[in-house]
Specification:
Blueprint: H1 2-22, E1 49-53, E2 58-62, E3 75-81, E4 91-93, E5 104-108, E6 114-122, E7 128-130, E8 134-137
Antiparallel strand pairs: 1-2, 2-5, 3-4, 3-6, 6-7, 6-8
């Protein structure tokens, strides 16, 4: 508790000093260090489609293969969304484990369910670009 009070007192002192110095709480912008380049974004996967095998309850989602001229995409990650649109809630991506290197992904989903699937292309800087959301209904 004492540490919390100290932090609050220090924050208040900094705020008072900022107001006294310039009357603003604005933090000055910091320029990016020289020599830093931004990584190009990987193109979003396209052409998503799925098939369902009711006997095994396996769904296979496929997408267009990586373009031979694409030097940015290092692989793909699968994810799911809260609904058929990003307006319905957040989407999630599997962040751990190896990247998918092909153009399909298979997972189990029991019959009578709906899952909102999304594929993310990833570049060397681990930045991801999501595909359109695919509604999978079994």
């Amino acid at each position: 508790m004492r540490d919390h009070v100290r932090i609050v007192c220090r924050a208040a002192a900094v705020a008072i000093a900022l107001v006294a110095a310039g009357g603003s709480f604005a933090v000055p912008a910091v320029a990016a260090p020289a020599g830093i380049t931004r990584a190009a974004a990987a193109p979003a996967p396209t052409g998503l489609a799925y098939s369902f095998d009711p006997a095994t309850e396996l769904v296979t989602v496929s997408w267009d293969p990586k373009d031979p001229g694409d030097t940015v995409t290092t692989g793909y990650r699968e994810g799911g969304c809260s609904g058929p649109s990003t307006a319905d809630g957040p989407c999630f991506v599997r962040a751990s484990g190896p990247l998918l290197t092909g153009s399909s992904f298979t997972f189990r989903l029991v019959a009578g369910r709906t899952f909102y699937f999304r594929v993310y292309a990833e570049n060397a800087a681990h930045q991801q670009t999501g595909s359109a959301i695919l509604t999978v209904t079994t």
